Amino acid sequence: MSKRIVVTGAAGFLGSHLVKELISEGNRVIGIDNFLTGKAGNLAQINNKHFIFLNLDVCSGDLQDHPLLNAVDEIYHLASPASPKSYQANPIKTVMVNTLGTENMLKLAKKHDAKVVYTSTSEVYGDPKETPQTETYRGNVNTWGPRACYDESKRLGEVLCYLYNTLYGVKVKVARIFNTYSAGLANDDGRVISNFVTEALTGKDITVHGDGTQTRSFCYVSDTIRGLRQLMETDEATGQIINIGSPDEITILDLAKKIKSLTNSRSKIAFQPLPLDDPLTRRPDITKAGVILNWSPTVSLEKGLKATIQAYQNKL
Ligand code: NAD
Ligand code: UDP
User: Fold this and answer.
1) pTM of the predicted structure, to 2 decimals
2) Could you tell me which of 130, 125, 142, 270 has the C-alpha nearest to residue 210?
3) Is the CB of 84 inside a 6 Å radius of any atom of ligand 2?
């Protein structure tokens, strides 16, 4: 059955991918974005009478009363810069979108009795002292540093979700997304895979921060989007926080070597200082996603990287 679905952050990496999938299945989609980090080009190929785009800031106070938001079944709230480069360039806007913007979406859901998926992040675990990270781990986050605007505002966004669920019965589900990639990341996005692939393909130095022993666990975009959609579809997930990510952990130095080898690049691997508060470990425990959503990722890092490299090669 066709639904009316709001996607905030529609012009971003994950949002644009999600919008295209939802439209292709016959849903009526309203995308909202203010192009803080998103690109109009991400939505350029969409020419569908079931898609409406609103160039709006989700922090706008009167958003719930917008005439085009008069019937809503589901809200995917993705608006927020996600790349450290972008949120550190826009720290106050990042705090606002994850708090004020999130409350606006929760109010909209309350008004229409709509379901909400809020995209939180593995960053709520900060520099974790437990690994892998389960949803019950409370995190190790610094309030006084360059990543705080993102980490702490996502945490407060989760608090708002908890309150709207417990006080008002809003059907909210929280996804804690771990590092996701594909060629949908713009070359200048600043996240590690887009940087390394772009550097390797253009013969520039592959710039590893620190000694490269810090780890991340990378999930291919199609798997993450499937996780978000299963979260929306699963009633048992209402009022729950669920990790969405790949448990396949790799050091950043090994990632650089892998990308250098897969691209047959002559680039050198160069080392730069590790940014302040850069987490040393990141690996999700996805048991809960398996039990409640019957979800786990299916695309290996090797396969996802090959697809990403191929698409970047075509772009360049
Ligand atoms: P992105 O930066 O590519 O997209 C975010 C979009 O939100 C952009 O189009 C931007 O213009 C828009 N936006 C920002 N502030 C806005 C505002 N006030 N009003 C309207 N639109 C606004 O990021 P992404 O990778 O697509 O991430 C999407 C969501 O998923 C974010 O909430 C992010 O925190 C979360 N997340 C992503 C990852 C990942 O690896 N991609 C990991 C963890 C969490
Ligand atoms: N990183 C790197 N070189 C880059 C970009 C990032 O070594 O050009 C490192 C970064 O310091 C971090 C990891 O790669 O340790 C992942 O960084 P990203 O910005 O992609 O995501 P996040 O730190 O938010 O997980």
Assistant:
1) 0.98
2) 270
3) yes
